[in-house]
Write the structure tokens for this entry.
Amino acid sequence: MPISFIADLSRWQADTEAALDRYLPAPTQLPTRLHEAMRYSVLGGGKRVRPALVYATAEALSIPQTAVMAAACAVEMIHAYSLIHDDLPAMDDDDLRRGRPTCHKAFDEATAVLAGDALQTLAFEILTTDTHLPPDPAIRLSLVRLLAQATGTAGMAGGQALDLAAEGQIADLTTITDIHARKTGALIRVSVLLAAACKPNLSLADHEALDRYARCVGLAFQIQDDLLDIEGDPAILGKATGADLALQKLTYPAVVGIQEAHAKVAALHRETLAAIDHFGPNATSLRDLANWLVLRQH
């Protein structure tokens, strides 16, 4: 990865961490245990992929980072809430997340459920109250609508439900692609679209190009995640591998094979880059992000 991108990514991660710290309730504020669990899960590290996509899209559209930071934090809170709930015994039953105990292990199951619930509602509160986001009510409404759609039955929650229903079943490529597009791809896509929504009078061509970029990189990201669960190093990943196989989850490699899954990631990578070619140098960070996400080892 270019040194300039690594520097930008580090800066984005630090800026996001600081902003999340400001938005989250203080651990001394009642109910303290709930707030401690929220902060434990959100501020526990992570790549901050979704905020990075928000910032890189804003850069491509010449939008100041400060104007989209609240949106970046909102989508990261939704992501954190989804991880808390995914890790629960009723879902994936994971003990580790980012190399340390999952929320329900560090606290308890009831607190973990409430922490996820509270993070979800806080995300939408931020979109409606933050003073740095565009003040236009139509834009605020669009931001709320986009994030709600990406989070609900048409997006992440629906994808998780379909994934659970498909465990142990034989599925085709259409089914697994739909699950991936909802469960993981929806939040990846909305990260790009939230920034795009903050650009007044964005052309239809630019919106469609960014949407295509987001859809392709989101699917590539999830297939790569599937592959890492098979081929990855647990020490690098910060979690155990083989969970998908143990739970008989439907994954892209399980449906088409490892070799074909790698080929699909490569094809999606090419399509991702082609989608934003006309943005020129302004989209350098979006290109670097796509390369990083597709070629990552953790």
About this structure: Strands lie at 96-97, 100-101. The chain has one domain: 3-295.
